[in-house]
Amino acid sequence: MKRAFSVFALLASLVLGGCSNFDAEWDRRLHTSPLDLFDGCWKGEWRSAVNGHNGDLRAIVTLTGDSNYSIRYHALYGPKALPIPFQYTLDSVEVGREGEVLKIEGAIDMGLFGKYSYDGQCVGDSYKSTYISEYDRGVFDLKRAGKLLPPAGGGEK
Q1: Residue spans of beta strands (DSSP E) within 20-67
Q2: What is the pTM of this model?
Q3: 144 CB contacts (<8 Å, ≥6 apart)?
Q4: Looking at residue 13, which CATH number applies to its domain?
Q5: Number of domains in the chain
Q6: What is the average per-residue pLDDT within 130-150?
């Protein structure tokens, strides 16, 4: 019994520690102007098409190169009264452009959670993506949170 409690306490501290790290980065980035149309904070929800599960979703998108990004997701799963936080990061996400539409697609092996692929687009203040894994498929539906890019031309008239 002591061992089970110790394992639970360790897992809880890892989850909560990761959440506070995400929250600190979220707060910092929320008050920083994004570097481009995709960089910055996004907030919305995820929905499973398989079982109907859904929850809050936040993403911190960081420009790391010309068209390369890191996307750090923080999702809530389970009952609203006692949700379970889950987070993961997609590194080296190559983003293409077709006019005003940014195309985000790729795949990642998430170990215990299996292979995961995503296909999305960002248009203005809307970022939508589908996901497919060995166990689930669904959608991410996000809107920009926080500061926006300054207007083209450098300011007010």
Answers
A1: 40-48, 54-63
A2: 0.81
A3: 40, 41, 42, 125, 126, 127
A4: 2.40.128.120
A5: 1
A6: 90
> Is 113 within a domain?
yes
Q: Degrees (nearest 5) of the Cα angle 27, 69, 43?
A: 40
Answer whether residue 157 is part of any domain. Answer: no
Is residue 76 assigned to a domain? yes
What are the distances in angstroms from CA 29 to CA 44, 73, 94, 147? Answer: 16, 14, 21, 9
Alpha carbon distance 130, 132 (integer Å)? 7
| 73 is a domain residue | yes
Please state, in angstroms and rounded to a whole number, the distance separating the CA atoms of residues 138 and 150: 33
Residue type, 109: D
pLDDT tens for residues 74-92?
A: 999 988 889 999 999 999 9
